Amino acid sequence: MTYCVGLLLKAGMVLLSDTRTNAGLDNIATYRKMFVFEDPGERVVTLLTAGSLSVTQTTLARLREAIDHPEEGVPSIMTAQTMLDVAEIVGNTLASVRHDIDARMEASKVSTSASMIVAGQRKGGTMRMFLIYPEGNFIEATEDTPYLQIGEHKYGKPILDRVVTPETSLDDARKAVLLSMDSTLRSNLSVGMPLDFAVIEKDACRVSRRQRIEAQDEDFRAMSQAWSNALRDGFQKIRI
């Protein structure tokens, strides 16, 4: 399992993913779940992945193939006219890969479910963020719900519901997604460090900040401890 979250704000987009892949208690590995495709100043597309590793990696391989070796009639996320077109390309590719792998894995009863978050902007267009379901259909982040999650999302959702609005600053958004991840890390062993973090500022059409946060990161540890202390203090102050 994994946990990925994306925030769509007026100031830009903030993205965070863990890197743990769990195929059983004795088969735990680290794989990147955040992938960036960009032509700086012209277009940026970021993908976050969760679910079957074989499905997501094959989907990414096909998307890269269409970029690196363009063929007539084969759409590419780096030449699509709009971010909606990008979401449709990713959704169609994901559904096609899942269908192919499903046919081979049917007898083994292995799950081939996978989902993705697609976030980006092209020059002259608006920032958009989509959650792609395993079947290839999708929903879009809106002002009413300015964030999307995939994977093991339930533990990290409450803080996002309470503090995130479209007006949230990029600095506060960073704090919100990291605390959301911290809550998930504490409650689910199938989500693990290191973390991949990225910021895409509005109209930059490039990743403005990118960081890998390791398990021994002192700033993350201090933030986690401060959040725990704040929750304990708040709990003690409540009288019923």
List descriptors.
alpha+beta, 240 residues, 5 helices, Glutamine Phosphoribosylpyrophosphate, subunit 1, domain 1, five-stranded antiparallel sheet
Structure characterization notes:
With 240 residues, the protein is of the alpha+beta class. It has one domain (3-234): Aminohydrolase, N-terminal nucleophile (Ntn) domain (Glutamine Phosphoribosylpyrophosphate, subunit 1, domain 1, 4-Layer Sandwich), CATH 3.60.20. The protein is built from five helices and twelve strands. The strands form three sheets. Strands 10-1-2-11-12 form a five-stranded antiparallel β-sheet, with helices on one face. The protein has a five-stranded antiparallel β-sheet with strand order 5-6-7-8-9. β7 (114-122) and β8 form a beta hairpin. The model has no long low-confidence stretch (mean pLDDT 93).
